Each structure stands twice: as C-alpha cells, then as structure tokens.
Amino acid sequence: MQALVVVAHGSHLNPDSSTPTYRHADTVRETGVFDEVATAFWKEEPSFREVLRTLNSEEVYVVPLFISEGYFTEQVIPRELRLAEFDVDQWDSDGTSASSTTLRATDVDKTVHYCGPAGTHDAMTDVIVRRAESVTGDDEVGEGFGLAVVGHGTERNENSAKAIRYHADRIRESGRFDEVHDLYMDEEPEVDDVSDHFDTDDVVVVPLFIADGYHTQEDIPEDMGLTDDYRTGWDTPTEVDGVNIWYAGAVGTEPLMADVLLERARDAGAAVGTAVEEVREQTRAGAD
C-alpha cells in the first residue's frame, strides 16, 4: 500500500488558509492511485506529528505544500514526522533543486519518502502560467503582456527569493511573455512599483503564495494601487499609472497545483500511472 501526505502551514487566524490543501488532496484522491491521501498542518489539525500514525500504508510519500526550501521544509517537518536520519545535505540542493530522500520514521514502521517542496518543482512554472491564463481568460495569453512573479522575500532566508527567481527565469527563457520580472514585498525590486518595471500596457501579477490571505488579499493589492481599501475590492484589470494590472491572487489556489503534488511523488518513486496526465486534462477542462 502507498499513501500520499500533503503537509502545509495552515493558520489559526485565516479559516481559508487550508482550503487549497484540501482541494488539491481531493483531486489526487479521486485519481485512485494512492491507497490513502492525507493532509497535515503546522497550525491546524491534524498535525504533522500525528499524521503518520493515522495511516495503514507502509510506503508514504510526503510532499510539503510550501513555496521554498527553508526552515519548515528542512527543520520543522522532518522533526515533527520524527525523521531522525534526515539531513538537508541528502537533498543535495542549491536552494531550488531538492528532490527526495527515503527514511524511516522512528516511532512507526513505515518507509517515508520525504520530497522537496512543491513550490520549487519544475511543474510549478506551468502552474504560474496557467494562473495567468485563468485570470485573463485567455489560454494563449503572452504576446503583448508582461508577467510579474511576486514573492514575499526576506533577508532571513535567501531561498525564499531563489524560488521566485527560478520560475521567473524559466518563464522568461520560454519567450511566451514580452517581459517577465520577479518582484517582492520585503526586498528590491518591490511590487509596490510594479508599473515602473514594465514597458507593456498589460501586466499579469501572480503571487507565489499557497493560499489567499493577508498578504495576497490586503497588502499586495493596496501596495500596487489596485485599491485604497481592500474591503472595497478592485477591478480586473485595474489601470495603474497607465498599465492594466491583471491580479491573479495566490498561485496555490490554481487547480493545476494538484499536478505538482503528483509529480513530486512520482519523482520519488510513487506508482501513479497516468494520473499526472489525467489531472492536467481535468483541471484545464474545469477551468474552461
């Protein structure tokens, strides 16, 4: 038997924080390729510490639904799952290339394949592009458009910005959009000045956050000038300094995100059959 466990941050304050995690887990569950699909959270129940004990499967694939490598993926999650032999060097990562490592949990008789975060997988690039398609309603969006990939940014964890730059670079190299820039909330270049960074008249803004919350629904829209008060909402697009801003909201809410979870597990050795292709087709059909 094989199980998938999706681990996420969750929130005591935002009841919608866990919603994308549940939805993506449901999508994977419906494929039927895992005997069990479970979710666990740092700030909600069930907790990281308990989740392995709820499973009957002996083979468990754990995928962190986090954007970047860092404190939670390297310290908190392995500790709470009691993966005592985990060492971040086992990932052999430069900050964006963590794959997976196979370990034994110390208090349950299970083989645990601990995967790198969903946010640094190459398939995440496709989710960002799909988010741009969703907000514009155009499956061919790109020509005549700029794309801003937005992250939190922090001097405390350099990997936070690395993940944002990684995907922005990949999309830029694809040549799909006229311009692609990575922008941040807490470091330069800042998202506040989004219109200053583009020559195009239309810019899609995709924040690399797992769930919509304080940052994506309050801070960023107000900082960009979409609205003076987030409670009154904003138009899509909204013209700011002569530029049409198409604000997409958190990338983690895009249904295609379920594909990234499957690809992470498949890369770690999970038998998923044609589920990746099925989910890609299903999520696009649902959006259309």
UniProtKB/TrEMBL annotation:
Alphabetical list of PANTHER family matching this protein: SIROHYDROCHLORIN FERROCHELATASE, CHLOROPLASTIC (PTHR33542:SF3)
UniProt entry tagged with the keyword Lyase: yes
InterPro entries (alphabetical): CbiX-like, Sirohydro_Cobaltochel/CbiX
Keyword Signal: no
Species of provenance: Halosegnis rubeus
GO molecular function ontology, one term from the record: metal ion binding
Domain of life (superkingdom): Archaea
Pfam family, one: CbiX
Gene Ontology BP term (one): cobalamin biosynthetic process
Protein's name according to its UniProt entry: Sirohydrochlorin cobaltochelatase
Keywords linked to the UniProt accession: Cobalamin biosynthesis, Cobalt, Lyase, Metal-binding
